[in-house]
Amino acid sequence: MLRTDFRDIYLLKVFYFINIVGMKINKKWNIIAFSILAFCILYIIFALRPLSTELHLIPEWTQDISRIQEAQDTDSLIPYRLGLNIGYFTPDGRVVSTIPYQFKASVSSSYYASYGQNSKNTTFFFPNGQEAGTLKEAGFPFFDEDRIFVFLPGGNSFIRYAEDGSKLWGWESYSPITAFTSSANGTVVGYADGSIISFTNEGKVDQAFSPEGSKIQVILGVGISHNGSIVASVCGQDQQRFIVAEKTEDGHSKIIFHEYIDKATNQQACVKFSNDDNSVYYGYNGGLGIINIKKSKSSHISIEGRIIQIEQSDTGANNLIYVLSKNGNTYTVTIVEPFDNPASQFSFTAECSFIQAKDNALFIGRNNKISRLTIARK
Is 342 exposed, middle or buried (CB count within 10 Å of its CB: 0-12, 13-18, 19+)? Predict the structure, then answer.
């Protein structure tokens, strides 16, 4: 393929060739020659395209999580979980903490905590190790960035807390929670009875509905947009569906997109909105579903195994989606360009893994090591 930088050179060659031919042949042949010239010009204009850049994954460093280095006050700390360890590392390759736990733990960019099976309260910490507060109710803490929740015993209720550990609001249902997520402007919960409830940051219910459409009603995955107005869900068994619902001005929910899932999953499914809320991604058995919300257009990418993470860099020009899937001990990372172009894919074997995206970097955890790949276009 020719580069557009040479277009003028090729046009001059064509004109020169035609002029020479026109001088040596009669008028009749000049008409044919100039017809050829017109065709060549049109071909060059419409067929010649710039060479597209390719995605390059450049290895930068690999660190063992047992090699702890000192943190600086100005460090940007990235959370990780590998096996029975949680902790933080820096973009330049320093692991600043590795915290082992025996039962369960939660870690985010803002807080971390480990807790036992019969914990009556839980102390949680900032990434630098300083104590942040105490969650006084018994249950299982969950940190989603700077948002703090505790799932209470019984599995059908939860509480949201302030940054100092004080209670903000809570919700209890008769049905077990089967899916849960939050964003900067809302929280959405899916239940075993097939119902979906979303809340404002103040704890007010702003959507409550049951998608139905399947023979067995259960919610396996939920997502909520960054502005809090749209929820999405993998719902049901036997005629499983993916739905997107929007809050209307009169306080009701309107399903603005739905599709049946051919390869249904019976496990919890990842649902993730893009940073601009224009698209939503979801995992199912053997693939990634992608919905363009504004155009109500769907696309699918075949991915083996179960999708366990969907990430997008918070900043940077690449605007790529990173998908981590697991099939036995084989993990696969798939990089997707908007809207639905799988730009790169690679696999590795491991006992445990995670991915994190930041700026133009992809961080990959594998067993007891963390690596950085810089993403570049060349």
Answer: middle
